[in-house]
């Protein structure tokens, strides 16, 4: 017989501790410690990068995310496909904004967006 779910952890104390920590993280927002001012989470942007480098990398990341969402949209049907296509459209809009910022960065006398 095939089970639908994996075996529960053998150490129920660790399981309950982890579950309570997760519940407290999402439900007890008043108990969250204040983040440090220099805390950037998992990722950080290196200091000293110029605007063009940042915009080019953002543009490439957006193109990659759009390709992933587009591929997903054509692999699924129904409402999830509509969600994936909506994500594609939002990414296209953000891509247009980044492209416009890149063009203004190349020619700052062009005026406002």
Which spans have pLDDT < 50 for at least 5 consecutive residues? none
Instruction: Give the strand content.
Output: under 5%
What is the oligomer described by this structure?
Answer: single chain
Tell me about the largest β-sheet: none
How many individual β-strands? Answer: 0
Instruction: Determine the mean pLDDT.
Output: 81
Global outline: flat
Number of helices: 3
What is the succession of H and E elements?
A: HHH
Any overview of this molecule?
- Helices cover 59% and strands 0% of the residues.
- It contains three helices and no strands.
- It is an all-alpha fold.
What brief labels describe this structure?
mainly alpha, 113 residues
SSE map:
Layout: H1 12-27, H2 51-73, H3 79-106
Helix pairs in contact: 2-3
